[in-house]
Amino acid sequence: MSKRSSWALPYFIFLVLFVVLPLLLIVFYALTDGNGHFTLANITRFFSDGDSLSTFALSIEVAIENTLLCILIGYPTAWILANKDYNRSAVTVVLFILPMWVNALMRTLATAELFTMAGVTLGKGTLLFGMCYDYLPFMIYPIYNVLNKMDVSYSEAAQDLGAKPSEVFRKVTLPLSMPGVLSGVMMVFMPTVSTFAISEFLTNNKIKLFGTIIQENINNSMWNYGAALSLIMLVIIAITTMLQKDNSEQLEGGTI
């Protein structure tokens, strides 16, 4: 225990038990049948199952709409919070991050109860409202973090060269803030696709997302097909993450 590397042992054990082992189990169940024999039937079933494909398409649609809403609301908010010309304090920033300190399930239940008390019919509109409310801080914070650390000399140089405020924002601020936007998109888009509790409570289970199908299969002891759907979701997340990483490196390197 005198070596520094020994202190990493608890983290390594945690990583193996709660990250690596669950992933291996997902792969195992996804590529086997009920008797433990290797098969690709679980994967091919997804592409031939009309209900699963339509639910997946709806999940992508809802995720895109929610992500766009979070960008439209989150970017101006982050820009105002990071702009030195506005009178804002650390307390104001904390107020936007404060909802993240409350359990997401509790926030969703409270939102659903407010809609019920107001007599609002639960549906796609309430679902998008609840998702935007839950995930908006995840869009604001990465954008604010990038904007707050941005070197103001770039904007000042553009202004000295005669650029208008709109041109400074379009040609300087926006491109330099894209890594934060991409991080926010990742933190909003993928959880929206895979969520199930929010759609259940805010639509009265009228709208099912991809995460709901996975949950239903697991609850019905259909482990193999549920694991296959989870594996497909993991592959999509991995591909999206790699693309987002490449784009961020290009933006930071100034190649875009």
How would you sum up this structure, described in words?
The protein has helices at 9-30, 41-48, 50-82, 90-97, 104-118, 124-149, 152-160, 165-194, 197-203, 210-219, 223-253. The radius of gyration is 22 Å and the shape is globular. The mean pLDDT is 86. The protein is mainly alpha-helical.
Question: Summarize this, please?
Answer:
With 256 residues, this protein is mostly helical.
Rg from Cα:
22 Å
Which residue ranges are poorly predicted, with pLDDT under 50 across at least 5 consecutive positions? none
Tell me the number of strands. 0
> In sequence order, what are the helices and strands, one letter per element?
HHHHHHHHHHH
Shape: globular
Largest sheet geometry: none
Fraction of helical residues:
over 70%
Distance between the termini: 48 Å
Quick check: average pLDDT? 86
**How many DSSP H or I helices?**
11
Structural class by sheet pairing and helices: mainly alpha
Tell me what portion of residues adopts beta-strand conformation.
Answer: under 5%
What labels describe this entry?
single chain, 256 residues, mainly alpha, 11 helices
Task: Present the secondary structure layout.
Blueprint: H1 9-30, H2 41-48, H3 50-82, H4 90-97, H5 104-118, H6 124-149, H7 152-160, H8 165-194, H9 197-203, H10 210-219, H11 223-253
Helix pairs in contact: 1-11, 2-11, 3-6, 3-8, 5-9, 6-8, 6-9, 7-8, 8-11, 10-11
